[in-house]
């Protein structure tokens, strides 16, 4: 049932008469019938109750712009559409009876707090070890981290390619031993 707002609605800036739903009255009148309708369409009692509530929620949130001639038909069409949407979702992603089994299949990509602490400690050890390395070998290492080839690094630092490579090897050995000591 559509109920127009009081006639003083125009006084507060409404140009057209707005429509308001008496949801409590509509729920009392159609709620049980709507739930039974959804159960006949194959929904279990809990799902039918959820869809019924969702139907009235949709009515509350998206009241039609023009008066509805047949409120019952409007409610049942909304419920039917929600039921169809649910069936489509279930076909794409079937419900799982054992929720614990389903949760085991979900992978949490974020690191655990322990892993975050360990990684920070490891980075700190690497930074300290890198600070102990002389400037030229450190520049070779940083150049490789930037994706440069040994030839490019050698050219930019004015050293032979083989020297850049051997300095990189020495830096890697130093960093590995620093991590192994910890």
Radius of gyration, in angstroms, nearest whole number: 34 Å
> What is the overall pLDDT average?
80
Shape: rod-shaped
Main β sheet profile: 2 strands, antiparallel
Distance between the termini: 75 Å
Give the tally of structural domains.
2
How many beta-strand elements? 2
With strands numbered from the N-terminus, the spatial order across the biggest sheet is: 1-2
Low-confidence stretches: 1-19
Helix content: 55-70%
CATH class of the largest domain: Mainly Alpha
* Second-tier CATH architecture of the largest domain: Orthogonal Bundle
CATH topology description of the largest domain = Rna Polymerase Sigma Factor, Chain: A
Series of secondary-structure elements, N-terminal to C-terminal: EEHHHHHHHH
Residue fraction in strands:
under 5%
Count every helix, treating DSSP H or I runs of 4 or more residues as helices: 8
Coarse structural class: mainly alpha
How do the helices and strands line up, and which of them pair or pack?
Layout: E1 2-4, E2 19-21, H1 23-40, H2 45-61, H3 71-92, H4 99-104, H5 113-131, H6 135-145, H7 150-157, H8 161-181
Antiparallel strand pairs: 1-2
Helix pairs in contact: 1-2, 1-3, 2-3, 5-8, 6-7, 6-8, 7-8
Task: Walk me through this protein's architecture.
The chain has two domains: about 15-95, Orthogonal Bundle (Rna Polymerase Sigma Factor, Chain: A); about 125-180, Arc Repressor Mutant, subunit A. It is mainly α and about 180 residues long. It has eight helices and two strands; from the N terminus they run ββαααααααα. Helices cover about 65% and strands about 5% of the residues. The chain has helices spanning about 25-40, 45-60, 70-90, 100-105, 115-130, 135-145, 150-155, 160-180; strands at about 1-5, 20.
């Amino acid at each position: 049932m559509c109920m127009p707002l009081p006639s003083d609605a125009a006084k507060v800036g409404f140009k057209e008469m707005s429509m308001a739903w008496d949801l409590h009255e509509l729920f009392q009148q159609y709620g049980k019938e709507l739930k039974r309708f959804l159960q006949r369409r194959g929904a279990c009692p809990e799902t039918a109750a959820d869809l019924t509530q969702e139907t009235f929620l949709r009515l509350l949130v998206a009241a039609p712009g023009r008066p509805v001639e047949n409120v019952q038909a409007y409610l049942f069409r909304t419920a039917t559409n929600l039921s169809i949407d649910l069936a489509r979702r279930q076909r794409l992603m079937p419900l799982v009876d054992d929720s614990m089994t389903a949760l085991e299949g979900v992978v949490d990509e974020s690191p655990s707090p322990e892993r975050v602490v360990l990684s920070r400690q490891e980075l700190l050890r690497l930074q300290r070890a890198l600070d102990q390395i002389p400037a030229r070998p450190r520049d070779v290492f940083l150049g490789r981290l930037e994706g440069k080839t040994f030839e490019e690094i050698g050219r930019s630092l004015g050293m032979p390619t083989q020297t850049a490579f051997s300095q990189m090897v020495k830096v890697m050995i130093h960093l590995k031993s620093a991590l192994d000591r910890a």
